[in-house]
Amino acid sequence: MSKFFLAMGFMFFCGSINADILSPYYTDTSKAIAYYSEIADKDSNNIGNYYDLASVFKEFGENDRAVDAYRQIVMRRPKEVRSHFELAKAYYFTGDYKNAEEEINAVIITGKENWEVSFWSGCILIEEGRFDEAIDTLAKGLNEDDRKNVVYIKLAQAYERKNDYLKAIENYKNALDADKTHIELNEKIALLYEKTQNIVSAFKYWNKLGDIDTKDKNISEKIKELKALYPEIKKIIEGWEDKKQKDRAEYMPPARLPIEKGEAIPKVKIGVLKDVVGVRFKCGADFKVYDPTQTMIFTGEKLKEYNIVVEGKKAYISLAGKETSKKYFDNEIYITKDEQAATTAVYGVKYGEGFYWAKKVDTSYRGDFIAKLENEKLTFINDLNVEEYLYGVIVAEMPASWPLEALKVQAVAARTYTFRNMKKHKKEGYDLCAQQHCAVYEGLTKEEKYAVQAVDETRGELLYSADNDIMDTFFHHSCGGHTEDAYDVWGFKHVKGLEGIYDSNDAKWNFPLSPFWMEEWVRTLPDVYCKVDGRGEVSFRWIRYLDGEGLAYFVNRMYPLGKIQKLEPVKRSKNGSITKVLIEGDKGSKIVNFDQIRNALGKLRSNVIKWEYTKDASGYIKEIFIYGAGWGHNVGMCQRGARGMAEKDKKYKEILYHYYKGSYIIKKYQ
Q1: 267 has which bridge partners?
Q2: Across-strand partners of 667?
Q3: Contacts (Cβ under 8 Å, ≥6 apart) of 166
Q4: What is the chain's alpha carbon radius of gyration, rounded to the nearest angstrom?
Q5: DSSP, res 470
């Protein structure tokens, strides 16, 4: 990410990098403006106070007042480039594009131009209707850094306003390639393809949206409409279906040697499918079906497809295509293979509902199965031992190409989490789900050599806290440089070993940070274990852009607030995560807490965020730029950090003890 316009001496004049933990910026942000205004008034020569004040103003959408604060800095430091840059942006957010251009040009003439200067200059030019100049300027920004999705989005907007729809499509696609969390861009691409009469390409993007959000009725209706109106789309769908059926017919669930001494390993029940009306599967061996009294009621042959279907208040199992073979049941059945090494293919398993990685796939699993009927819906449960379950978890959570020591960290953390959270879904009839809610489990699809090795080499190992309890070993993709206290982000009671830590042995940033330095934190690349740049940078530092329509779309999927007028922070943890947000719309307002903030504001990667937004003439949010650090809830083990430590030759136990302070390992079974 860019190096900002800070002279080396700036830090010495910017006041403290730290904020008082009792500061309302962390405890009651409604009082933050008054608090930092008073500080600035008391020490008006310290420009750091004005940077803090402006930072708070921006979060509250008080852009006119942010302009005034930055002007105070420019007045005191007319040659400081950074203040002109921030003032240019503040003018942009007030809609004063003339003054915004004047200030951004003051930066450009210094020769200290980077991708950000080009980007904001391009944004200003778009609003002034100078689209060709904007395109040239934004393209210059891409020459300086071609990984920034927001630049592609603004380029697309410029081309769209010129009615050059093909170029707009190209740049929206580039934005998606740079950061796939911008799922709303699929709809923009689909609509632009419709304008160019490329209905087939439009359908593919509508269909992608349908895969991501199966509950969106508008998208479902759109897909149905296109299927009905265009024969070529019907032909494409038939081709997809023919290929799927051909692949299924040819597929043979592979044999896998059972783990040694598997009888000594506790079992776990994983909910693979839930609330469905039908299940189709194929077993690699003959199998038997038992009712709850252990009476055998059905037998099946290997490599043939079978259906379990709800019919009224009951369900039945039958050979696919052979309705005469139906065997009915009214509660649950147990499906047991004749050969331990055999696996079972289950068709149409959904993963990642609502996220860009959403998919519906055919997956093979070890172990046996339970089909449970309740309220005229089926739950399909995989019953297997914990170690073989972990074989299908590790690579679903961490790439197999990462160092073995990092994979071993993941194995111990996932095993410990499994035992700690056993019976989490007891009411539904199983222990854990196969989704992100518990841990992503994809069976044989994700079994890889080194992941299996990591599980085997840590067999039976669990992590215990200083209180001698099995730890709640939460983990996440990237903490962005600092993990969080479970208490702060979720309201849990204080848990030993789940306190926030700086993700390095050399803490150069001391939390809690003042508002300005919090802004810097999410916009720079600190040297921590989880640091990543290049194409993977978006898992560490990112910018989420939404126009007003996009923001309203995500908010209203959860809360019926209408068009969004205001977004304000309410509470922030001492390590940076926003834990309460006020969202106001023309149909109501809502305080949103904890993880739901990420979903409501556009499927954000984390809660460690700062934002800037502008409003239209009617007072609705026109566009918002959200700057973020990390990916996930930030509690417990940082997976990217574990990788970074492993690459520095740290062993898995040392890594675990770094993230879970005061913990120790006990081997539960051999």
Answers
A1: 385
A2: 461
A3: 196
A4: 27
A5: B
List, as one string, the DSSP characters of 282-349: EESS-EEEE-TT--EEEEE-TT-EEEEEEETTEEEEEETT-GGG-EEESSEEEEEESSTT--EEEEEE
- Distance (Å, rounded) from C-alpha 69 to C-alpha 471? 47
Give the predicted TM-score (pTM) of the model.
0.94
Domains and CATH numbers, the chain: 10-212 (1.25.40.10), 262-457 (no CATH), 474-635 (no CATH)
Alpha helices in 491-638 (DSSP H): 515-521, 548-556, 596-600
Percentage of residues in the chain having pLDDT higher than 90: 89
Indicate if the pLDDT at residue 649 is higher than 50: yes
Backbone dihedral region of 534: left (phi > 0), alpha (psi from -120 to 50 degrees) or beta? left
Least-confidence region, from 15-19, 133-137, 342-346? 15-19
Q: Which of 91-105, 233-247, 367-381, 488-502 has the lowest mean pLDDT?
A: 488-502
Q: Is 282 exposed, middle or buried (0-12, 13-18, 19+ CB in 10 A)?
A: buried
- Residues 547-577 as b or e (16 or more Cβ within 10 Å = b): bbbbbbbbbbeebebebbbbbbbebbbbbbb
Classify the phi-psi angles of 66: left when phi > 0, otherwise alpha if psi is within -120 to 50, otherwise beta: alpha
* Residues in contact with 234: Cβ distance below 8 Å, sequence separation at least 6, in sequence order: 227
Residue 589 identity: S
Average pLDDT over residues 660-666: 97
In this structure, the strands spanning 664-667 and 461-464 are antiparallel
Does position 467 have pLDDT exceeding 50, yes or no? yes
In whole angstroms, give the CA distance from residue 511 to residue 575.
6
Q: How far is CA 87 from CA 533, 565, 592, 649, in A?
A: 28, 23, 31, 45
> Directed axis angle between helix 404-420 and helix 652-659, to 10°?
50
Whole-number Å distance between alpha carbons of 533 and 636: 23
DSSP 4: P
Residue pair 669/265 in contact (Cβ under 8 Å)? The answer is yes
* Model pLDDT for residues 288-327, shown as the tens digit of each residue: 999 999 999 999 999 999 999 999 999 999 999 987 889 9
Structure tokens at 662: 């005061």
- In whole angstroms, give the CA distance from residue 267 to residue 423: 12
| β-bridge pairing 461-464 and 359-365 | unpaired
